[in-house]
Amino acid sequence: xxxxxxxxxxxxxxxxxxxxxxxxxxxxxxxxxxxxxxxxxxxxxxxxxxxxxxxxxxxxxxxxxxxxxxxxxxxxxxxxxxxxxxxxxxxxxxxxxxxxxxxxxxxxxxxxxxxxxxxxxxxxxxxxxxxxxxxxxxxxxxxxxxxxxxxxxxxxxxxxxxxxxxxxxxxxxxxxxxxxxxxxxxxxxxxxxxxxxxxxxxxxxxxxxxxxxxxxxxxxxxxxxxxxxxxxxxxxxxxxxxxxxxxxxxxxxxxxxxxxxxxxxxxxxxxxxxxxxxxxxxx
Length: 283
Description:
By secondary structure, this protein is mainly beta. Helices cover 5% and strands 47% of the residues.
C-alpha cells in the first residue's frame, strides 16, 4: 500500500515519505531545514540545543481544602536553537549567503533534520527571531559571521524519517477482532488507520478502539463494497472515499510500546482490510 498522507501538505516538501526523486541540493547535509543544508563548507552549525517539550498544565484548587489537581496536561511545543557561522570567499560572497539563509529560513514551516542517537530526528518547525539571527556580527566580520536562530516545533515530538506501516495479514471477518501495533518511539503518536471494505455486507457501524489507552471512535452509516475509511489522527479527520464524514468519540492515538487495537462491527457478511501507519515520535 503506497499512501504518503502528507505529500501535498505544506510541511512535507522534504519528500521524506517516498524518496524516489533525487534529493534536493543540501538535503544530504547532517543538519537540514526545508531542504536547505546547514552543515557544510560555508555554513557550520556548531551548537544544537533541543529543549524538552513545554507542558501546558491547567490546574484547579480543591474547594474548601488544601492543594489542587490537574484538570488538563498537554505537551505544546519544542524549541530548538542552532548556532554557528556562515562564511564566504569575500564580504560580498558572505553577505549573499546571509541573504540566502534568511530566505530559506523564512518559509512558512519546514522540516528540520538533526542527528540524534546514531540516526536522525525530524521536527516540523517554524523559524522565529530572524531579525536577531546575525545580531552578533561586528565590524571585523568580513568573510565570516556568527549566527543564531531559534525554531519552534508546534508538534512537540521529534519523529523518524518515515512512518511505520503495518498491514493486518488477514481481512477482518469477525467482530470484535483484536490486532497489535507497536510504536517504537518514546512519546505518543497520531495514528492513521485505513479500513477498506472489500465486502461491505450489512455493516452499519464501525467502532475503532485502542484498548491500551481507551481511545475509541464510532462511525455509523451505509457502506458499499470497496469503500475506504481513513481515520486520520494527524489531520484530525475521518473520510470515506476521500470525503469527510461524521464520527463520535476520540481519534485514537498510539502510545509508546505495544498497542492493542480492536475493531467492532454491527452487521454481517463483511471482509475488511486494515492498515495502520504512524510516525514513531520522541520526547
